[in-house]
Amino acid sequence: SAMSMARWRGARPPPLAVVLCLASISLWDAAAAADPFEHLAGCDLEPWLSDEPAPGEEGYHVLCFVNSTFAQVVRGGVAGRTPLALPFGAADFRQRLEDLLAIRKEIRYEAGEPRKQLVWKKPPWAMFTADGVKVNSGEEAAAAAEHFGRSPSALVMLLFEGGAWRWPTIRIGFHREALPGVTLTTVARQPAIFEVRIKPENAHHPERLTPALLADVVSAAEKKLTPSETEGRVIESMRSSWQTFVPYQTSQRLRALEAHTSSLLRADAHNLEEL
Description:
By secondary structure, the chain is of the alpha+beta class. It contains six helices and 13 strands. Residues 1-11 and 16-34 have low confidence and may be disordered.
């Protein structure tokens, strides 16, 4: 700069080592500014970060554990946001993370009347591995320490403020293999809609999810069909339908379908509705 030149004018020029050092610092700063995720090398974040935020995914966050006491947090799972540094200890991990992300314990909505709000208490937030395994509350730091006890590689974990897994939409057209031979493709981000495709070769693997698991659902349902009701009555003069629910426990195939659906959604099978 002009000031630097004026400072050195009339004096001996700076040593070559100083010039090279300053140049190296400038190059490092420029590289860091160009790629704020450079220091997250080792974490495969491509499947988990979106290009821009989407309504409904505000409570989704991505963590890259560098070691068992330090992590970088990407708020909202949005690639353009600078990661937040999170040093922590085993005893204070949850509280430090709550403070860093300002996680609220309640959800508030305006009720349409002045100064009146609807308030719901949120379930405790939860963390999952990239494979969809839920980490017990309070054991997050221990899980990271266990990982680094086996491997020096960086660790990706996902935080959901609602306490349940939700596939991030990433972008329209984004696809991933969620189960062997089963892909999810993002159709819409608001609301989150995915297309589920099952590869034909799954038919040759009885242990995988296949459409054949639905082979007996129609025959099972036909025995239980009842006409729909309007205000507790069947009104034949109105447009109606015949319907029923089919429990997963109806057959061996449907029990297998329940297990695969649970794995696909990364959800407990007890939380699934009947067919």
